[in-house]
Amino acid sequence: MLSEKISSIFKKISHAALRVGREPDDIKLIAVTKSQPVDKIKEAIDYGLRIFGENRVQEAKIKIAELKNFNIQWHMIGHLQTNKVKDAVNLFEVIHSVDSEKLAKFIDKEAEKRGKIQRVLIQVKLSEEDTKYGIKEEEVEKLIEVCLNLKNIKVEGLMTIPPYFENPEDVRPYFKKLRQIRDELNRKGYDFIKELSMGMSHDFEVAIEEGATMVRIGTALFGQRID
Question: What pLDDT, on the 0 to 100 scale, is given for residue 226?
Fold first, then answer.
């Protein structure tokens, strides 16, 4: 039952937050709906979920059109190619995956056309995996400075996708590192960098203990995807 899974996830979020003295309400649950049918999303809305994440612009475009009458938010959590920016700016409240100056400038240009301030997160690559996107730690501050000179883009935080480990404890150093990068940026005066989008179905509790403000959960809610 989806209702039971949602209830279980919220309980785990709450317990993880309280273990480290955080407020559960400070953590946003992003329901990842990649490959999930619209009916499943409607059911999730009925049970109180309000923020949904999609990896692919084309898939999101269809779903968002069908669900346009619902009061929900959509977040782009997958890699964004420059040729999809126009649609992404039109569709998503927050883009989690800004990983280059070029992409930031494309987003700013499209947002300006729409009279929109596009909220974004900077994706940071903390592993050596070729399959992971993101910029290096030492490039984050420079990209933030680029974004500060763009009028229609607003950086609100950082995102990362660490390697997969069977034991969630093995992921902890990656989450801790992203928090440390955020905290160091805050000390340097970039105190608007608040959000930490990190943690998925198998490791979100560890992510919350290390400071996640957004957790991206799909499988634990909806079951295995059918790609």
Answer: 58
- The answer to whether 66 and 39 are in contact (CB under 8 A) is no
> Does domain 2-222 correspond to CATH entry 3.20.20.10?
yes
Within 10 angstroms of residue 168's Cβ, the number of other Cβ atoms is 17
SS3 category, 214: strand
What is d(CA 67, CA 54) in angstroms, rounded to the nearest whole number? 14
Residue 131 has pLDDT above 90, yes or no: no
H or E stretch including 51?
strand 51-54
**Taking the mean position of all CA atoms in its chain, how far away is CA 220?**
16
Two structure tokens written together for 184: 């160091």
Domain ranges of the chain: 2-222
Q: Is the confidence at residue 110, as pLDDT, over 90? A: yes
The verdict on pTM exceeding 0.85 is yes
